[in-house]
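hiii, so i know i said id send this last week but things got crazy w the move. better late than never?? heres the sequnce for the chain we talked about at the cafe, plus the structure i predicted for it. fair warning i was half asleep when i ran it
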Amino acid sequence: METTIKRIGISGSHSCGKTTLLHKLSNELPNYYPTIEEIASLFPRYARRYMETQVAIMRAQIETEKRFPDMLITDRTVMDNLAYTLLCFSESKMTQEDRMFMMLSRDRCMRHLATHPYDLVIFVDETIPIEDNDSRCLNPYYQTVIYSNLKNIVISMKDEFKNFDILYVKGTTSERIATIIKYLNTK
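okay and structure toks below
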């Protein structure tokens, strides 16, 4: 398969199958696509509710993506990081430091999308029951909030930058892969 799509980000709320999709998709595509596993999972679950941790996750995501300027498939995007930072911000006491962290995350996300855009953001357009992997948030309310906020962020960033496509996928992993491969074969 030959495609002009070189930088792919997989986006969606937690426990929606992004990591499974990353692994299955990387097996379907030519083996020259480097993959980036979910950076946030490298940080302890309890620490991710703090703004400074979300800023560190954003920084690590950006640094890792910059190592692969030409091609990549990443489990989560900088927009996912922004959605989780926004969730922390809405849950915080709204201190001046929290406002600074929120602005810093938004600025970093925007700068990264302007300088290292994805060609395609695959948005997993559904939520499924949360499975505990000792990493993800187990609260279904937060899953729904992240899904809604993230979908709005992805759409607004596409409208702002106009430098990436969005492909919405749902269903089984096989159905998602079939939708993606069909799309990539047209590009």
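btw The helical segments are 18-28, 51-66, 78-91, 96-115, 140-161, 173-184. thought thatd interest u
miss u guys!!
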